[in-house]
């Protein structure tokens, strides 16, 4: 099965997701770098966070899969603590992507993240692999699966965007 050629909008969004992932882990002083070895990633995945989103122009899901090493560096030991941290990281990653898309005129609402054990997570062979990273002795992988409104164009706007890392109380 041939994969369709990505549109400029798809390519731009993938670049946003990749940079947002690097920036998120960097915020917690965990340096990650590109990795293309799927065989090294999948057997080491400890947990996967999944969050859905929907809006007038875009809908889909984001999956953040990590081995235990980067999760311990970010938030601590223990399965419960790592689960909580992965849910939070998944939420923060989608927030970073959303901030960058809002600045381009695309807004959406997010659901609550869920965390799954990663031992049996694997991509479908016909789907793109997403972004694979090495992270301080561990691995991080991000899949961003979207459906875009036909004809969507990204146009810079003056929409207010929160500074990443800030807190919004409502």
Structure description:
The longest helix is centred in the middle third of the chain and has 24 residues. This protein is α+β, with helices and mostly antiparallel strands and 170 residues long. 33% of the residues lie in helices and 25% in strands. The protein is built from four helices and seven strands, in the order αβαββααββββ. It is globular and about 45 Å long. Strands 1, 2, 3, 4, 5, 6 and 7 form a seven-stranded antiparallel beta sheet that branches. Helix 1 crosses helix 4 and helix 3 packs across helix 4. The relative contact order is 0.25.
| Main sheet makeup | 7 strands, antiparallel
Alpha-beta classification: alpha+beta
**Helicity range of the residues?**
25-40%
Task: List unreliable stretches of 5+ residues.
Answer: none
| Strand and helix order | HEHEEHHEEEE
Q: Indicate the proportion of strand residues.
A: 15-25%
Count every helix, treating DSSP H or I runs of 4 or more residues as helices.
4
Tell me how many strands there are.
Answer: 7
Radius of gyration: 16 Å
Mean of all residue-level pLDDT scores = 84
Cα-to-Cα separation, first versus last residue:
47 Å
Give the overall shape: globular
